[in-house]
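sorry for the late reply, my laptop died twice this morning and i had to redo everyting from scratch. anyway the thing you sent over, i finally got around to it. pasting the sequence first so we're on the same page, its 161 residues, then the predicted structure underneath. double check i copied it right bc i was rushing
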Amino acid sequence: MASSTSTSLPAMVLVMALVLVPGSTTCHAARRLADDTTEAAAPAAVPTIPAVPQPKVPVVPGVPAVTMPPMPAVTLPPMPAVTMPTVPTVPGAALPPMPAVVVPAVPKVTLPPMPAVSGIPKVTLPPMPSIPNVPMPAIPNVPMPAIPGVPMPFAAPPPKA
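ok and here's the structure:
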């Protein structure tokens, strides 16, 4: 993709140069044409849009107040008492003891020593250059200007214990 962009840029520059070279010969013809032509007539007045009459909006009649009949009092029959059935008890059953779980021991394994890698030269690095201590410049405390219509922020009150 990058190669197509890099080859198209010189091609575009060449095309633009070829377009501009013959354009200088038409400059004399354009100047003669501008000198020989007469002034154009003043443009005619632009017609305006006629005023459109506004339609009459019908008046919406008011909604009459509706009175609702009083709500009749409703008496409910008394609720019958509900008796809950008794839950039978489960007899105490003796469970067998939980068997002991034996976790197999992981055998101790010793790894063989790591073989030495040959062919890598020992390289000593140059010492690390010291970084100078740069003091931080003091930042002035500039108060924030008030903006009309925007409340100023304030610190939150301390939490209640």
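The CA atoms of residues 16 and 68 lie 86 Å apart.
thats about all i looked at so far, will dig more tmrw
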